[in-house]
Amino acid sequence: MAVPLDDVRPLLAGIVRWDDDGATVEIGAEEVRVQGDPERLRAILGDCDGRLALRSIAERHGPDGRALIDSLIERRAVVNGAEAWRVLHRQSSVGSALGQPIGDDELAALERGSFAPSQAIGTRVALEPERGTTGQLAARRRSAAPGGPSRPATFASLSSILAATYGVNSEAGETRSGTVPSAGALYPLAVHVLLREPLPPVERGLWWHDPLSLPLGQVAGDAAQVDELFVAEPWCAALLARRQPIVFLSADLERPSRKYGPRAYRYGLMEAGAAMQAAYLTATELGVPIRAIGGIDDGAVHRFLQLPDTTVPLLAILIGT
């Protein structure tokens, strides 16, 4: 499914700093240096906006322009425009230079706030919801806290939550469907489970959940060290110390980005959110504590899960306390 190099639409993957001798492309904590006449470099890099195919840029700027972009692609300072998610994911990850500090008072004000339309005309009508099981479960949904009641996961409860979180039905000749909606029925999420204690009949280690046939397959043996995978937060450390199962949701964006281009990342986030909600509702029904954690170290988790280059970790979910 690889796109021919001539058809790639180059997109700069970072912020460019200019000086008298050339430019530096900042890619997260890394820097890629480009030497040359700044005016010519501005013309070449200016065309790396994800709109023009590489062959067109080469025709415009000649062999040396093509060679420059080839080298930037090799050094990951330029990506295919269809994979713009790489830039967004890097900028939204732990350790990104983007953002600003926040104080306790401002944080408290944000927590009290909510969206309100700017042009509401004043009429308000109360809802009259019918009492259904799903609505009642959603109203009871809570994120586990360190001071909450303890209820460890069992293999049965973990199995139920995994099957509801991301199960895919596949009938011959029919479009695939599953427990959550998926753009184009591509179902790109990868689901891993880390067990730091045995959960008979499953032993300790890292496991992969196959959503098509619902087995667990072992990926790695005893992997007990998880502190470096999460942003340091006291409540998070307290929950992790209970050594209950951790589910990781990642998005394999190779197939979706080939079909949807940059929208693939958005769809992956939507799908992970739907899977998280399915996990919460099922855990609520079973009375099992659950807590989603978005504060993961993307690079560390990527290495830990042994993910391919086109797959990005999005979320961790603690099951049981």
Strand content: 15-25%
- Termini separation comes to 43 Å
Indicate the overall shape: globular
Number of strands: 13
Task: Report strand order across the widest sheet.
Answer: 10-9-8-11-13-12
Low-confidence stretches: none
Return the CATH class of the largest domain: Alpha Beta
Q: Based on the structure, what is the oligomeric state of the protein chains?
A: single chain
Largest sheet: 6 strands, antiparallel
Provide the CATH architecture of the largest domain: 3-Layer(aba) Sandwich
Mean residue pLDDT: 90
* Count of helical regions: 10
Tally the structural domains.
Answer: 2
The residue fraction in helices comes out at 25-40%
CATH superfamily of the largest domain: NADH Oxidase
The CATH topology name of the largest domain reads NADH Oxidase
C-alpha-based Rg, rounded: 23 Å
Strand pairing plus helix content: what structural class? alpha+beta
Give the SSE order as H and E letters: EEEEHHEHHHHEEEEEHEHHEHE
